[in-house]
Amino acid sequence: MIKVNAITCPKCKDTIYSRTRHDFRSCSCGEVNIDGGFDYTKIGAKNIKEIQIKRINVYVTKKELYDDWNFKKDKYALHPVLSSAECKNNDKDKIVRFCPNCGIKLDEKSKFCYKCGFDLR
Predict the structure, then answer these.
(1) At a CB cut-off of 8 Å and minimum separation 6, what does 71 contact?
(2) pLDDT on residue 87
(3) Is the pLDDT of residue 77 over 80?
(4) Pairing relation of β-strands 25-26 and 32-35?
């Protein structure tokens, strides 16, 4: 597990982060973006005052994130790993959810995060 800088879109609620330097990422609605990976953090938004950079846990290694970007695997690029939105787990073909507040992996039918109590409804 590593910590990364991330932002959450106030419109679509995606939590996004950049995997490595020059990995420019936008949320699904295009309202916010982030770049820089572990080297720097550069954000953009239509209303920058609404955006806060936060530190979140990512349950992969720094090398896995870099290789995902470098070899264009996009396992972690096509869906924000730490989003309340559901995403496909490529290994198990099962829906996996993560808490947008603390980043912990959740049960498929969770209504609240069991770690921080965040309302997922």
Answers:
(1) none
(2) 37
(3) no
(4) antiparallel
pTM summary value: 0.63
Amino acid letter for position 30: G
Joined together, the tokens standing for residue 101 give: 């507040």
* 114 falls within a domain: no
Q: How many domains in the chain?
A: 1
Is 116 domain-assigned? no
What count of residues does the chain have? 121
What are the φ/ψ torsions at residue 68 (nearest 5 degrees)?
-60, -40
Question: With 70 as the cut, is the pLDDT of residue 56 above it?
Answer: yes
Report the amino acid identity of residue 55.
Answer: R
- 20 sits in the region (left: phi over 0; alpha: psi -120 to 50; else beta) called beta
Q: DSSP for 36-77, please give it.
A: -TTT--EEEETTGGG---EEEEESS-HHHHHHHHHTT--TTT
